Amino acid sequence: MKIVDVKTYSAVYPVKQPFSNAMRTTRERAFGIVEITTDSGITGWGEGATLPARRAIDTHVIGRSPFDNEVIWEALHYQGTDTAAISAIDIALWDIMGKALNQPICNLLGGAFRTRVQAYATGLFRRNVPDHTAALVAEARGYADQGFKAMKMKVGFGPDYDIKNVAAVRRAIGEDILFAVDANCGYDRGSAIAVGQRLAENNLLWFEEPISADDVEGYIEIRRALKMRISGAEQLRGRWAFRRMIQEGALDIIQPDICVCGGFTEYRKIAAMASANHVRVIPHMFGTAIRLAATLHLLAAAPDSPRAHEPFPALLEYDMSENALRTQLAKESITHTDGVVAVPQGPGLGIEINRDVLKQYS
User: Fold this and answer.
1) Which one from 60, 284, 297, 336 is the annotated catalytic residue?
2) 60 is catalytic
3) Are 5 and 36 in contact (CB under 8 A)?
4) What's the mean pLDDT when you consider all of the chain?
5) Which of 21, 59, 251, 306 has the smallest C-beta neighbourhood within 10 Å, fewest atoms?
6) Which domain holds residue 323?
7) Model's pTM, two decimal places?
């Protein structure tokens, strides 16, 4: 079986109601999508934060076997292709391999430890509303009413906003729901520590990306200063970028994004390095139905860490923001039931792409 064609799509979904994190306001959701076709008629789909150049595809992908995923990965990397673009190619290759073997990708990764994954609702962005606190409280209660046992809120807007609103949301949802916050790199070290000390009073699951993604020394300082878990690394590309973060104990939880870090092939190496250093891995997910399905397969194949009687849950980030490329791109949408999401059981990624939706937003 050989690869005979690779198509790339720049898909953009215009957001009807813009929302903000600490660094930017989102008015559209943009994604790179790859379609790889083989001479056997099997097609694979991938997603990346960026897309590979035509020359790289023609030189290192066309004509190869999809089972040469390691060879293709190294060739693209050596040529200088962005790791996030390699991600798109790699995910599509694993989709093809699963379809060729009539197995879901989680089985190719070593088997499924679980077929259903507990999700945490990612939302609670800052919006253009008269009363931020009231809007956040209502949204959080809505997630709880849907059955979510965990959720994440955006912070990094300054001490007054963060301290007031995190406390208000925690009071609204009670102490039994797992509650994380994400600053999207919105603070410097000193401010992250000062604000974090107040936020920690709210029994938080973790404090995500308080500072710049690559500031290893800063994360070590913050982790030592705060009495809560520190997480991050969703923006990092390739195993080399994760090495110091993991080996020097800068984070309690690393959050590689499969569409940024290098696809299934590279994610496995990052996760192995984290396991060897006793660092927890909870993947980041903020993309289309392709990224959602891929992330579910990662979580299905991830052993409990630690292997305790009541282990820390393998959590799926379930994006609650507006995005038709997540909710409509797969013909059968991946949805939650009481905050739990089933892992697709079909071959490969286990989803079928709706080409009409792809065409509409490409």
Assistant:
1) 284
2) no
3) yes
4) 97
5) 306
6) 107-357
7) 0.97
